[in-house]
Amino acid sequence: MKASAIAHPNIALIKYWGRALDQPSYLNIPTNDTVSMTKESINYAKSGIDLITHTTIEFSENFIEDTGFLKTNEKLVPFDNVQMKRVVKVVEALREMADITLKFKMVSENKFPTAAGLASSASGFAALATCTSKALNLNLNRTELSKYARLGSGSAARSIHGGFVYWNRGNSHDTSYAEQICECNEFDIAAVIAVINRGKKDVTSDVGHDSAHSSLFNQIKIKESQEKSVEIRKAIENNDFTTVGMISEKNCLYMHSVMMTSDPPLFYWNPDTLKVIKAVINNRNQYFQTYKMINKGVKQKEKEGIECYFTVDAGPNIHCLCRTEDIDAVQYFIQNKIGIQERDIVKVRQAEFGSKIVEQHLF
Ligand code: DP6
Q1: What lines the ligand 1 site, CB under 6 Å?
Q2: Sheet with 53-60: strands ordered across
Q3: pTM summary value
Q4: Are 131 and 163 in contact (CB under 8 A)?
């Protein structure tokens, strides 16, 4: 009764921030539908950031208690109580379904910074639900896996799938799950991450999901996010990069406005985040300016600027969304014009799969 799985994190285009108040909070049911792209790194040799979590779980009568470890630099560090509670929540629900009481040992390894706004818990809990289902011989389908991954971390519901993903908020454990909008590369978009800080965030998303409701702007953000989830889904299906970029960027700003106006206020950005955000906007304006001139028949020396958009999760790191053909130009711009070091830049593409069983075990 041992299995391993890998999973990729995702970047939210329509954000989950705040749990539905009419649902039990342990279910992690969001206030609105959300949309994301499951992502994998291209240049991880340079950044050392490979956007993958690898998890192994074993159930055995030899274990006298449930244990969980994070493998870091070849060492096994036991999970603290808070992390362990989230792991047990997912495993316990599946253990009950399998009707067994055996204790487990679990080891998980992130090939990228943990809890630094790069969605390590999304990939972590997607991998956990997937390998646990296998080890317990439940062999659940992706819809079911999505529901159980959600119990560990809401956004993990989306990391079960590759490509573009839509999470229906639903109104119960059974109706709140993610589904794939389209396969990897059916819609052309990539991203370049400017890693501003690899450290753990000061305030967890968990705390933020509770405080979101104290912001005056939360209700309007919920309404808008719900409508835009439907719109962005259509734009993805129509391969409409501009609409996807514009909606994503706005939704990120709505979420951060809620964060900043919650009680207590939450500021995940730092000065470098703002520097990159402003540069992305300037660069894009330049692109549209040149584009307008060319359309008017005014001769331009060369194509200037890049059409790119930003989005930021609960941390200072920025995802610059761009067309695949522009990914090197965006990297060049972030590195040479904004001054972010090459080792802090991660180019990402859509991941073909979200979570997947693998043969290799971590113990
Ligand atoms: C800002 O509760 O899924 O990334 O604390 O990592 O478990 P963890 O995050 P979660 O909240 C995610 C918040 C977000 C937006 C999003 O991914 O939709």
Answers
A1: 12, 15-17, 34, 121-122, 153-155, 204-206, 313-314
A2: 75-78, 67-72, 103-110, 53-60, 2-7, 355-358
A3: 0.95
A4: no
Tell me the pLDDT band of 48, cut-offs 50, 70 and 90.
confident
Give Cα separations from 232 to 13, 172, 224, 243 (angstroms).
Answer: 9, 24, 12, 7
Beta bridge partner(s), residue 312: 318
| Mean predicted lDDT score pLDDT of the chain | 93
Is the dihedral angle over the CA atoms 349, 275, 259, 218 positive or is it negative?
Answer: negative
Gap between the Cα atoms of 61 and 67, Å rounded: 13
CATH number 3.30.230.10 given to 2-358: yes
Model pLDDT, residue 116: 56
The answer to whether 30 touches 19, Cβ cutoff 8 Å, is: yes
Please state the separation of Cα 268 from the chain's center in Å. 16
Query: CB of 158 within 8 A of CB of 36?
Result: yes
Counting from 1 in the atom list of ligand 1, the atom nearest the Cα of 255 is 1
Q: Looking at residue 292, what is its pLDDT?
A: 74
Measured CA to CA, the distance from residue 154 to residue 147 in angstroms comes to 9
Ligand 1 pocket test target in 155, 200, 204, 255 with most atoms within 8 Å of CB: 155
Q: What is the pLDDT of residue 251?
A: 98
Task: Give the Cα separation of 277 and 271 in Å (integer).
Answer: 10
